[in-house]
Amino acid sequence: MPGMSETGRLVLFLFVVLTVWTGMHAYVLARLWSLPPLAGPARPWVLAVVGFFWAAYPAGRILIARGAGRAGVILEAVGATWLGVIFLLLVALLAADLVTGFGFWWPSAARTAKIVAVASACVLSAVALLQGLRPPVVSEHDVVIPGLPDEIAGTRVVMLSDLHVGTLLGTRWLERLGERVRDLDPDLVVIAGDLVDAEALTVRESLPALKQLQAPLGVFAVTGNHEFYAGLDQSVKLMRDAGYRVLRDSWAAPTPGLVVAGVEDLTARRQFGFDNDPLPHTLDGIPEGAAVILLSHTPWQVRQAAEAGVHLMFSGHTHGGQIWPFSWLVRLQYRYVGGRYQVGDMTLIVSRGTGFWGPPMRLWRPAEIILITLIDGQ
Question: Strand, helix or coil at 40?
């Protein structure tokens, strides 16, 4: 909102999040109120357990911020997993209510529908947890760029996005990721934002693992919205200390004929009231005839990038919806949710994310490492 202070935005954000979070629990409890064990003498105990889960994630984050260590991490993991479970419970119960008309037009099936909904949500939660904890898959693309210089034809680019390194995805996970990236033998590595999850100082413990991510032409990165939340200056310093070239509304040429440009995250710019049209400045002065790769965490201003002569655009942020059917809600705000798109003469690739945010869960949309080979279009 115009004129609102950063503190005011934070208070409003927390109010909205807690209201939605509480509303989700209220709906699920209301729909299950007449079923065991909520309908029996164990109701107070069930409510106490649900209350614990409701508070686990924010309590874990607070404890971690205050240096509580392992206790905070355990609470965060429990709360994050519960976030995915309660979402799937809500969706399944809502589907049951729509089928039975909230028990009004098909009252005889209402109870059975709720039981089936709970069972389905439990099964889907287990599947999502297994998929979320799996290593990311490798998605390969050949991208044709007309007039690509012979010297860089065949260049292999690995794209990572939304790693969300923090307390749940830490040093060991990063080390395994680094090994997989090295096995792909990339010439260039790009990171399209949200390397950091919640606190840059926490991620600094993983700096040696971050330094292992290397490529002959370098590692280039841009900020995502979580770098802003985690502390922008600290996050940028962390990436630079790891040896990455951080592109902040700027471009660089890792090799003659190839340009990598990057913009600060468009979502964060909008949230914090910054200038939200960085492309003209960012792309200014790029040598004529160069192959241009643009890194932009949020997949916005896509048409504008294509018209400006960008050949290949990398984005993330959406996580591909992460947990179906949340992807349906994501599509309300983002036209490009995940995968490969052709926009004019430009190829857009939106990553589903290499890590996860919140629930360590993914449903039908696995995490991914993207490998691109640049091909001459002549």
Answer: coil
